[in-house]
Amino acid sequence: MQPLRTIDAAALAHLNRALIGFDRIFHQIENRSVGTNNNYPPFNIIKYDEQNYGIELAVAGFLKQEITVEVDQDQLVIRGSHTDDVMEGTQYIHRGLAARDFEKAFTLPQYMEVGEVSLTHGILHVKLTQVVPEALKPRQIEIK
């Protein structure tokens, strides 16, 4: 077994995408973001400021009641499952929109809270906020 001398960019990118909120660490190593092996449905991770992030997931063709968003410990899991009655009786001549069910999981760092979730124009928006307890924030000590 040979020692690790170089960083595999693809593996690092997968890890970077999975750990939302720790982007400062990864920007020091590599300043880019690449997809994971499971690219369906496509998504964006957005940083609005130091505490606020967002995930946008393209869910065209899914109804609101066919999508579930769940937080289980440090995992944000988004699932889409078509109900049979929506597709039943529809005869497609060309089918360019994917109609397969999906499950997308994101590992949330410590102190990350999932906020509002909305569905607009086929895009699912998930707001995330990093809430670090006051005791863990840097503080200045007065010099006497």
Structural summary, described in words:
The protein is α+β, with helices and mostly antiparallel strands. It has helices at residues 9-18, 23-29, 84-87; strands at residues 43-47, 52-58, 67-72, 75-80, 102-107, 112-120, 123-130. The chain has a domain at 37-136: Immunoglobulin-like. The strands form 2 sheets. It has a 4-stranded antiparallel sheet, with no helix packed on it. The chain has a 3-stranded antiparallel sheet with strand order 3-4-5, with no helix packed on it. The longest helix has 10 residues, at 9-18. The chain is elongated, with a radius of gyration of 19 Å. The N and C termini lie far apart (55 Å). The relative contact order is 0.19. Mean pLDDT is 78; it is low at 25-37.
User: Helical amount among residues, as a percent range?
Assistant: 10-25%
Assembly state (oligomeric)? single chain
Cα Rg: 19 Å
Tally of contiguous helical segments: 3
* CATH third-level topology of one domain: Immunoglobulin-like
Q: Which regions are unreliable across 5 or more consecutive residues at pLDDT < 50?
A: 25-37
Residues in β-strands, percent = 25-35%
H/E order of the elements?
Answer: HHEEEEHEEE
The count of strands amounts to: 7
The level-1 CATH class of one domain = Mainly Beta
User: Quick check: average pLDDT?
Assistant: 78
Level-2 CATH architecture of one domain? Sandwich
The main sheet orders its strands as 1-2-7-6
